[in-house]
Amino acid sequence: MASNVNPTVRRRRLGQELRKLREAKNMTAEQVAERLLVSQSKISRLENGRRSISQRDVRDLCGVYEVEDERMVDSLMQMAKDSRQQGWWHAFGDIPYSVYIGLETDAESLRMYESQIIPGLLQTPAYAEAVISGAMPESAPADIEKRVTVRTRRQDRIRDEERPLRLWAVIDEGALHRIVGSRQLMVDQLEHLIEQSHLPHVTVQVIPFEMGAHPGISGQYSILEFPDTSDSSVVYIEGVTSDLYLEKAQDVGKYSVMYEHLRAQALNVDQTREFISKMAKKHAQG
């Protein structure tokens, strides 16, 4: 697959274009589904980029929407073809959060809040293995190893010299206290976290317990933004059996405002590094 073709992003862009064509015809997803003898949920999944879309699907939809511009049809058909190619993560088999990986791979910036553990993009391999093993106690060692490999591969975006991901991570103090693996492992992880925080495109802030209740109290979430203005921002909320992706401007705006409050209530960058350093020393002392 060409390095500049991200199937997840292609599906999103194609879905957005198909939604515009439907809305231009003043048709509902239900009406389109009736015309094509398919379920309404299929049309919705095609438009939100959660379902793989075939060139035949595009051709049929263009017929319903009476698209006469052959160049537009050809362009949409090519997007459908590109969207069915595989990203690097597909080589690892069935990854439940593959949609998210595709979005993260193409994102320009990522703002995230984590309350329980150190964010995946900032984890050491040993910490990642301990986290995954604890979260998935019935998984086979091979599955755990695969997930660790995928997680460390995702971190290439942080190390990318040409197009590094701009990462802003707000972490609750609880994640620093929780002993994942061992105290020495925590020392190594926290030292790594401080080291990563010195990268020019990485910002880390900690919210101490003393701040009390705050806008992130209900749980972790991430906000992804993309270099192409035609790609809407996405709020990602990870679940146990399914994940939630919010793309409506109203939803993204609400979470963005919440994040601004989180950043304002957290320790500043220098205070955060000092705080993490003290926590590392506590773990070292046992």
TrEMBL record:
PROSITE patterns recorded: HTH_CROC1
Pfam families: DUF5753 (PF19054), HTH_31 (PF13560)
Name of protein: Transcriptional regulator with XRE-family HTH domain
Taxonomic superkingdom: Bacteria
GO molecular function, one term: DNA binding
Residue ranges occupied by any HTH cro/C1-type domain in the UniProt entry: 18-71
CDD domains found in the cross-reference section: HTH_XRE
